[in-house]
Amino acid sequence: MRILIRGPAVLPRPEELIPRADVVIEGRRYEAVVPRGAASGEFDRVVDGEGCLLVPGLVNAHTHLAMTLVRGVSPDLPLGRWLEEEIWPRERKLTGKDVYWGTLLGAAEAIRSGTTAVVDMYFFMDEAAQALAESGLRGLLAYGIVAPSPDRVEEELRRGEAFAREWDGAAEGRIRTALAPHAPYTCLPAVWRQAVALAHELRVPLHTHLAETAEEVEQVRAEWKTTPAQWLEELGVFSVPVLAAHCVHVAEKDIEILAAHGATAVHCPTSNLRLGCGIAPVPAILAGGVNVALGTDGAASAGDLNMIEEMRLAALLAKAGDPTALPAREVVRLATAGGAAALGLGKELGTIEPGRRADGVLIGTEGPHFCPGHDPVADLVYAAQGGDVRAVFVDGRPLLLDGELQTLDEEKIAARCRQIARRVR
Question: Which residues neighbour 101 within 8 Å (Cβ) at sequence distance 6 or greater?
Fold first, then answer.
């Protein structure tokens, strides 16, 4: 299919803005970005981009999509109590079919607010992957391995390995897989060692939670006499690509470890604030040479899956005491190219230029909150809303057009999820 997006402003990369252009998509890739009116040839579809801003697809680099099913549960508790007393008991009632519907709901919400790719960790991941394939989104998916006792190690690793083997490369290559030991405090050393060996064999990355709370850091220090990042390094974890979610409580040495091994730190500002975990030192992590991406975490802790909102909060939190920290263009880079690098697709995604995968988001800029329009990039970060998204493309396929979902039945999905929520309540 050949598509013309006619007349939008285009942000090929954060430091470059084209005030008005025509963008041509041929199949799964961008074919051309040319001056308005200069596109030639026949088109199967013409999308009106006048009054809009076309940006690279936003990557939600850490989430649990099906946690839409427990959104709003006991919102004002610390992480430990919230998980153990409220979330995990409800999650134990979920079936694979429930996770399928919850993932569809999360996918619909993500598309509506401009997300084109997700890094998702949960359970019943076969059903989650099926849902993501149907949605048209791109994803790096993993079964969340939780094995705090020896009797669970082999079974949990078997599930993680089986999923990684079965689904890697599915959905015409849009789905890739990872291995996901949940966190240093929920997985024994044997889990990490075997997961690393498997990751090398399968050539997949690891996705985990790291240094999310001060309590986690103290627990690891009490048991292993070091920090979570340093403990994982001792276990050889960073010998494979690692996506480390949160990184709120990282020391200078931890940042050096992440940088030395090419790991990605995934900043989840809304969730970390909601659960009282703290604020990740993103400027210091970036200054240390670490790739940083943005994520929402699950909707149960973040409230929503809105990456535009996440960009704004990330920028504002970094500026406490220094208004020059984490400028708007850098925040956009984290949400696009930083996320693409986290996916291992830094040469395929993250910019709008000929030859790149056609993952893009068309954002309407005609609302009063975009006026007068001095700096469209600043407006994108500090003024835009998820509801401003007009169209979303993944591999050149429209997932949202004129504000209407193209791949999912939103009303049917919402009705099923309300039924599930009543049962697990």
Answer: 69, 131, 413, 416, 417, 420
